[in-house]
Description:
The chain has eight helices and seven strands. By secondary structure, it is an alpha/beta fold. It has a single domain, classed as NAD(P)-binding Rossmann-like Domain (Rossmann fold, 3-Layer(aba) Sandwich), CATH 3.40.50. The protein has a seven-stranded parallel β-sheet with strand order 3-2-1-4-5-6-7, with helices on both faces. Helix 2 packs parallel to helix 3, helix 2 (31-42) packs across helix 8 (233-244) and helix 5 (120-148) packs parallel to helix 6 (170-190). The protein is globular, with a radius of gyration of 18 Å. The relative contact order is 0.14. The model is unreliable at 12-18 (pLDDT under 50).
Amino acid sequence: MGFFERIGLIKGKKSEKKQGLCALITGASRGIGKQIALQLASEGINVVINYNSSKQLAEELSKTIERKYGVKSIAIKADVSKVEEVDKMLEQVKEAFGKIDYLVNNAGICVDMDIKDRTVGQFVKTFEINTFSTFYLCKTVGSAMKLNGFGKIVNISSNNSINCFYPTTIDYDASKCAVNSLTRNFAIELAPEVNVNAVAPGWIDTDMNKDVLTEDIKPLEAGRVLKKRIGTPQDVANVVSFLLSDKADYITGQIIVVDGGMF
Length: 263
């Protein structure tokens, strides 16, 4: 018996589309995850805001979503690199919403560092958060979606997974390459009931990039982009929203690059 069967999240029949839809977004208290949560809520979707350390931001976002969009939202603390915390989070989702229709694996870390200074332990930590968590959530939630007969998953990758720009992010780049592979494998494993895709952003103006993408560096990096600007979280949220919509029903196993034409 699988985890979702044990906690009763398997419905045994196809979920009713456009009625009580629920999205779980990891790492959603700020940046790209926050904007995805706001975008989906604006479309009438109930949202679960996962966070690890930013409790105040997550709870404020959840309250804003309920007040502004009239949908249900809860904030749940969980370190997604730890299986036991993920299982506990999923139990809380079951109690609040009964099922998960959409999963967005957004939680991730990126620490710039010269290769000579990076340790195996730091490499493993990056994979635990960026890759292992994506595997476990795709496997666990995806299995429930398949049994329910409906679900869509979007993994947040990076254009670093396709082009190597700076060796200072070697572990991040490798972890996102793995996310791309997981995306394609789970698209096969969960077909035809569940669509699994990934979005690979380029430079996005978020807190995670603030120490690297400084005001003096921004114009230089924008000059390498065909659109001549740094991306915004909304640019990514727009594509995620599309992939979760009925309009993208025939798209699965794809890695969609959202980087303004970076070269």
